[in-house]
Design a protein that fits this description.
globular; 94 residues; 4 strands; 3 helices
């Protein structure tokens, strides 16, 4: 199926890691041009912070984007994905 991105259809992967060891899976998914929603509620806060730091750094190195969606929920997107906020649309209509 053709899409604006070529033959590949954009994917969103939702992950709920239970330990830092799974942080690499999130980074690999972004490297494979998938958008990742990472819910860290199942991790201890210090391990969750370490995971966010690791994934954020890797995504930044790939020119990707990261966004905090909630207390323990984060979005990581490859460079080709544009993240748009409701507030962005509000300022355009003014």
């Amino acid at each position: 199926m053709d899409s604006p991105y070529g033959q590949r259809v954009p994917e969103v992967v939702v992950m709920t890691p239970t330990g830092f060891a799974q942080a690499g899976e999130a980074l690999l998914a972004v490297q494979q041009q998938r958008t990742v929603v990472l819910h860290l509620g199942a991790m201890a806060s210090d391990e969750a912070q370490r995971t966010i730091d690791f994934v954020s750094g890797g995504v930044f190195a790939m020119d990707g984007q990261s966004e905090r969606l909630g207390e323990m929920v984060f979005l990581f997107a490859p460079a080709l994905v544009r993240i748009e906020h409701d507030r962005d649309r509000e300022t355009e209509s003014i």
